[in-house]
Amino acid sequence: MSDWPDDWFRDGPRLGGGPTGGSEPATAPARPPGSPSAGPGGSPGARPAYPSRAGGWPEQPPVRTRGSASPTGLPPRPRTPAGPGSGPSGWRRALRPKPVLLALAVLLCAAIITTVGSYFYLDSRLVRKDILVDYPGRPAQGAGQNWLITGSDSRQGLTKAEIRRYHTGFGISGHRSDTIMLLHLPANGGRPVLISIPRDSYVPIPGYGRDKINAAFDFGGPALLAKTIQDVTGLRIDHYMGIGFGGFVRVVDAVGGVRVCLKAPLVDPASSLHLRKGCHVLTGGEALGFVRTRHAFATQDLQRIQNQRIFLRALLRKMTSAGVILDPFKAFPAASGVVGSLTVDQGTSLYDLIRVAFALRNPITTTVPIADANYLTPNAGDAVLWNRQQALLLFRDLRTDAPIPKSLITGSTLAG
After folding, report:
1. Among 351, 371, 398, 362, which residue's Cα sits nearest to residue 126?
2. Of 230, 213, 250, 416, which Cα lies nearest the Cα of 336?
3. What pLDDT, in 10s, does the model give residues 129-146?
4. Which class in CATH covers the domain with range 123-408?
5. End-to-end alpha-carbon separation of the chain, Å?
6. Contacts of 306 (CB under 8 A, 6+ apart)
């Protein structure tokens, strides 16, 4: 037998009496003002009782909906999103990257402005001259692009102390070109080709008859030299770049020297060069002596032009290396030293020079085919006589971007 009445689930007397069970009112007796709240046991601080419902169940607190006032009359507490980074402090953390991104954007804009400004500044420092002039019979445009690169014996830019130190000599009249190279940039994406032309090559010079090719530089400067080379090779020269002794020294020093490894000691009192066997980081003055030295070799100028190609490649690899390009304290002085030392044609831009710099990192290298390195001339002493048939074959292949026969590629090696 259960202790619960059979009708416990039906509406019955309310707690504390009600309309069906007693004479006491359904509401709890009022407390005197200021008295502490009392629970069912009458103890102060106990939870207050809510009004009773029908069936003897205590009245439940009202259902709170979002945005409704709490029973205490205070505004509802704001809901706090769950999860990491939530709440006011989480929002602050979420907003923190914006100043960082803003700073990065400012730095990026500053870098772009500096780079663009530096480009136009350096481009404006190039010494441009009217060298590649048009004339009747000038070769037609072929495939790719051809550069004439020269190194003159001009002492401009050297102090008297440097002239004595580097043994370049005082009171030398006229201008000669100790370095003459042709650089071909193929249009078909092939490897660039760098060809040395010996300075003593015996060729026709327009208006002066046959003579050593570097005499053209003395007679009419780079413009006459360019015309002479175009006539004897059949190649149209698209761009010219020349540098003197002083500029060469400044460029090498600006990149922090250039590393060269020698197979044998190299001693040349004429150029004040004393280098032991092994690897050296050549300063500007040492590098000038290295590319000028010829008396220490059995083949003299023919070995010197190979050394010049080797050094030029090493210099351009250093200038275009990440250690120089990504370091503004090296990149800008190096670039400034280069553009301030070069003479170019009117159509050459800084972008063209950058393209050449990367092309010279790894070109195919050779010397124009030679028939006689000690050809006795009637008017100019010993000279270099080209192998005309092979030379014309080499230049024809360059003009059409055809593959060059391996027999015409001599490469570049150091003596020893």
Report:
1. 351
2. 250
3. 999 999 999 999 999 999
4. alpha beta
5. 122
6. 196, 365, 367, 412, 413, 414
